[in-house]
Amino acid sequence: MIDAAEVEHLARLARLELTPGERETMRADLNAILGYFQQLSAVDTSGVEEMQRPVDLVNVLREDEPGAVFSRDVVEALAPETEGGFVRVPRTVEAE
Fold this sequence. Notes:
This protein is mainly alpha-helical.
């Protein structure tokens, strides 16, 4: 089962700032989820054929064919900010 140290480790990996009460709730929830997996592993599935999906799907994706593209001028006109011919976007991942 999950202990407090593992919850703290998971919270750090997920970049979550949890209060002590939230940590305890998270620990209880994770242990309950793992308990459900233990119940599932106790079920005898020896005669059941493995299944990847409940419905047979065959090539539901279209062919990847190149199409019309926007010119650089149009892209730069639509972009909120550009720099040196590139679209400038805000940083999404902070360095530690």
